[in-house]
Design a protein that fits this description.
By secondary structure, the chain is of the alpha/beta class. It contains 15 helices and twelve strands.
Length: 362
């Protein structure tokens, strides 16, 4: 009996990371798995890669697509989806964040694929239920996010991270993870620097770490110029040194735009502040069709934009205040540590197995 062929296609870093972990689980179920991921790099965007992606998808038994965050970055997924749709191969999407299905709404880059989508993997029941309005023929399944399961199990301890970075016991480590949007990063990081400068003037010892997003293609020199004029100790850490995820356990507080690192902070009960410029909010809306930010909607992060308010909240959330206790209680409730690892991957693999079996009976 020949192996069934599953083609997994993703450009952005998060779905790429998921599919890399899903590949061996599918192989255990007897699938010949073709992994075509970009991991946030530009290699998958080359024109010559599109022919290969198209060919692999046309010869598959099932095609699983990530939902990259712009039409440009979604090029490999669009190519694979177009091939699967044209050759009647079952295909569907994995949504790695809430409202990811919005990237297939009318007028968005995946909209032409929505009518024939066979399945959608949502990170929770609410997300899967809401996806039904976009994918009328799809089976919308709650699988969870495999990468989120791992967020509760950091590679390094707090002490190990701080030792690697040379952070003294009496210093506060402020982690500011970046997005793929340079203008948004500069706005958030500039506000953070202004706020921390106010605290430094009051005698607080602070180190700021700017952690770039793995999919950010902005020239490093732009960010280095900001660092060079920062009045407080500031440095850029790239994934080649330590990933943003690796930095989380060592942080006293995280200031970001509400992305996955904020969610990782919630799993580890790190105080969170969401700071977004109007431009960043408009970008979020252009991607997902909504300005909603998961961490803010779930009340596991404060939403602050002015430097003065940010300074006050940093003090409040890094000392033993009622606000900090309430935030941690909320984080524990909504983002509890999983009792076992690999559950989401098994749910995905089981669903893929079942879909291929049903499709083969048609």
């Amino acid at each position: 009996m020949s192996l069934r062929k599953a083609v997994l296609v993703a450009q952005d870093a998060a779905p790429s990371g998921c599919f890399k972990r899903l590949e061996p689980v599918l192989k255990e179920k007897g699938f010949d798995t073709v992994l075509m991921i970009g991991e946030g790099k530009s290699t998958m965007l080359a024109d010559e890669m599109q022919d290969k992606i198209y060919e692999e998808a046309t010869n598959a038994n099932i095609v699983v697509l990530g939902m990259s965050s712009s039409q440009e970055l979604a090029k490999p997924e669009i190519t694979a989806g177009d091939a699967a749709q044209s050759f009647s191969v079952p295909y569907g999407f994995y949504g790695d964040v809430p409202n990811c299905w919005g990237r297939a709404r009318a007028g968005s880059w995946f909209d032409f694929l929505a009518p024939d989508t066979s399945f959608y993997f949502g990170i929770n029941q609410k997300d899967a239920d809401e996806a039904e309005q976009i994918f009328p023929r799809a089976k919308c399944i709650t699988t969870g996010n495999p990468l989120r399961e791992e967020m509760a199990f950091p590679r390094f301890t707090r002490e190990e991270v701080r030792t690697k970075l040379g952070i003294a016991p009496d210093e506060k480590l402020v982690l500011a993870p970046g997005d793929k949007f340079a203008a948004g990063n500069m706005a958030t990081w500039s506000t953070a620097i202004d706020a921390l400068t106010l605290l430094q003037r009051n005698g607080e010892k602070i180190q700021l770490v700017l952690a770039t997003h793995p999919g950010d293609r902005t020239p490093q020199t732009l960010y280095e110029e900001l660092v060079s004029f920062s009045p407080i100790p500031t440095r850029i850490i790239t994934k080649d040194i330590l990933s943003s995820s690796d930095l989380v356990p060592g942080a006293d507080i995280i200031i970001g735009s509400g992305g996955s690192i904020c969610i990782e902070g919630a799993y580890q009960q790190i105080p969170l502040i969401c700071s977004c410029s109007e431009a960043m909010l408009k970008r979020i809306e252009s991607i997902n069709g909504s300005r909603k930010i998961e961490a803010v909607e779930n009340a596991i992060a404060e939403f602050i934009n002015s430097a003065e308010d940010l300074a006050s909240w940093i003090t409040a959330l890094t000392t033993n205040t009622l606000g900090r206790k309430i935030m941690r209680q909320r984080q524990r409730k909504l983002y509890p540590k999983p009792t076992e690892r690999g559950v989401a991957l098994r749910k995905m693999a089981d669903a893929i197995d079942a879909i291929v079996e049903v499709w083969g009976q048609k």
